[in-house]
Input
Amino acid sequence: MTSLRTRRVPTDRLTQQITELTGAPSDGEAVVFVHGNVSSSVFWHPTLTTLPDRYRPLAVDLRGFGGTDPLPVDATRGVRDYADDLGALLDALDIERAHLVGWSMGGGVALQYLRDNPTRVGSLTLVNPVSPYGFGGTREADGTLNSPDGAGSGGGTANDAFVRHLAEGDRGEDSPVSPRTVLTACYVKPPLRFEHEDAYVEAMLTTRTGDDHYPGDSTVSTTWPGVAPGTRGVLNCLAPTHFRIDDLHLIEPKPPVLWVRGEDDVIVSDTSMFDLAHLGSIDVVPGWDGTPAQPMIAQTRHVLDRYAAAGGRVREVAVADAGHAVHLERPDEFGKALLEVLSA
Output
């Protein structure tokens, strides 16, 4: 009988915490699940138990989340600190080739790993992934910068009150920006509430905060909204001045790619409630100068269409009535699509 086991794995970069199935075959096809921002591998626990016996599923905590060492994030490398950590983990586990499944920011990490190590990826599944052109500060499908300094993205775009509630370990829902409220209002489409909601809140609270972690530092910009990316921390590593994958179509070989997204996602969206440009257009952020919202879905489709045109296999699955955590909201639909790409 299989059960979940969590352990820490020393690598040549840092010690990382993983969760795996005790009964999974050590020689099975590895399926590695990468979580998103302000979360941990706990958000993948239900999925780990659903794969057939021939697979070896495991979920990793990224640096600064869960039980992995909280080493600082060098945002000037984009998400490569995380992607290189992932490679070190696979080496430590003697996994030469793996199927990657990345959710939200984890989708960006998986994309970067594929871009840098295409021969080591069996397939790539993106679940409500961050745009290949980062989060905030761009327009149009090709990810054109709104300003050379990346204004409108990075650590300065975080909600200060949310960061404070996170750092204080707030487990309640009295505040509209407490972790629990953000989970139930933004990670999923309301009114869905999870049976194991407390576990997900605890996972969110493992997020290390500060300039080296979440949200990161920032700089002043003369361009609206007045903030630009810094060089440290989580949101800066996702800034379009540091993270940009616009040449995925050039890699060889080209493993199959599955893109699964909830149609009602309010985080990764062409009208994201976390994009200052969109919030400005609806009078939530003052002084809006007409900067267009980032077309996040259109940007991902642009990159994947180029990948397909160059010979790669891409499948997009849009799940109705689901939000940002579509793998938890619609596990049967997600699981079916995942198994198809794993066996492609």
About this structure: The mean pLDDT is 97. The longest helix spans residues 296-309. The longest strand covers residues 4-10. Residues 109 and 143 are 18 Å apart (CA to CA).
